[in-house]
Amino acid sequence: EELDGKTFLEHLQSHKLTPNLTHYVLCAIAMGNARTPCREGIAAVKKFLMSLGHYGNSPFLFPVYGCGEIPQCFCRLCAVFGGIYCLNKAVEGIHFEQCNEGLKYDSVKCGKQNITSKGLVVGQGYMSRAVFSKSTPAEGAAQKLCGNLARAVILTNVPLGGASQNPGGGGVAIMKLPPANNHQEGATILQMSHPSGTCPKAIYLIHVTTLAVTENPEEDLKPYVAQILSKDYLPAPEITNENASDTESESVNRENTSSTILYEAYFNIPSCLACAENANFSLPVGVRLVCGPYHELDYDQSIEQAKTVFHEIYPDEEFLPRAPDPEEIIIGEEEPVPDQGDSLQDSNEPVDNASECRELESESTDAQEAKEDAVDKAEECTEQK
Hints:
Layout lengths: L7 H7 L4 H11 L8 H14 L10 H4 L3 H12 L12 E7 L2 E9 L2 E4 L3 E4 L9 E2 L14 E8 L16 E5 L9 E5 L12 E8 L5 H12 L19 H7 L6 E9 L3 H4 L4 E2 L4 E4 L9 H14 L39 H32 L1
Parallel strand pairs: 4-12
Antiparallel strand pairs: 1-2, 2-3, 5-11, 6-9, 6-10, 7-8, 8-9
GO cellular component, one term: Rab-protein geranylgeranyltransferase complex
Family: Belongs to the Rab GDI family.
Pfam families: GDI
C-alpha cells in the first residue's frame, strides 16, 4: 500500500539515491519519466533485471535477432499447430455482403482467387473509411492510442559516442532521452548495426521516435536530435608519423566523437482511424481490427492486443501454447511407452529386463543366420543354373 499514490521518482528519492543513479534507474532501466507510477516503475525494473542473461548480455531481444524474428516465430508456432499460410500473395481487396446487422465480411481477394473464412483480423490500412459506421463509445478505461508519433531517420558520419565506443559493428544501440520542453514521454534513439572496422566512409543509421506534440515532426524532435547530433561537419583528424607512437589515451582524445547529420528525414505516423475517432466506430460482422504501432520498445501493448483479439475469437483456447520439444513430436502411429508401473509383473515381482535383452539378441542372431543361409542357397542355385 505504501507504493500507491506516489511516483517512481519519489520512491527512488526516498531511498536517498544520488541524482545520477536516480536518473539512470528511472530513464535507462525503467525507461520511465517523472510521471511514471511507482508500481509501474518497479515492474519495469524487475522485467529489465529478469531479462538479463537469457539471450546474451543485453536484456533486449530484438537488437540481437531483429524485429523480423517476431512474425517468423508466430509463423513457426502456428505451423506446428496446423496453421496454413498463403505466401507471395497480395491482398487486393476485402469483400463484404449486406445482412440484417449491416455489412458482413465474406472473403479476401488475392489475384484471381477469393479466400473465404469465418473471420478476418486486419490492420486499418486495408479497409476504407466507408466500412466503418458510427457507434456508441464503449464504457470502461480509455485505451492507449496507437500512432501519433514523430519519427526521424538520420544518416551520420560517426556513430554515437565515436568509433571507439562502437567496436565490432554489431547489435543495436538503444538510448532513452528524458522529456524535453513540453514533452511528456521523452524520445527513443536506435542506432542500427553498422560496419565493423575503421572505414573512413562508413555511414551510420539512427532512428529517433517520440510522441507527436505538434503537426511538425522536425520541431517535435529538434530538442532530442540537438542533444546527440550536430549539423556541423568535422573532418576526422589526420595522424602523422610524428604522433603515430602516441599512447592510446591520446589517440582517443583526438578521435572525432561528434556525429554530423549527412541526411535527415522527418515524418509523422498518425493514429489509426478507430483510435483517432475515440473508437466510436463499429466494424462489419466478422472483422476485427488491430492498430499500431505504439510508442513502446518491448511490444507489450502489441502482444496484449493480439491476445485480446485471439480470446475474442477462441475463448476456450490457450494463447501462445508452448511448442512441443522435438522428442515429443510423434509422426504416424508409435507403440505406447510403458509406464514405470508396467515394470512389475502381475506377482509384483520386477521384470528381468536383462534376460529379455538377451532373448531379443539371440532371436536377432538366429534371424541373421537364417538370412545368411537363404543368401547362400540362392547363390548356389544361381551357380547351378
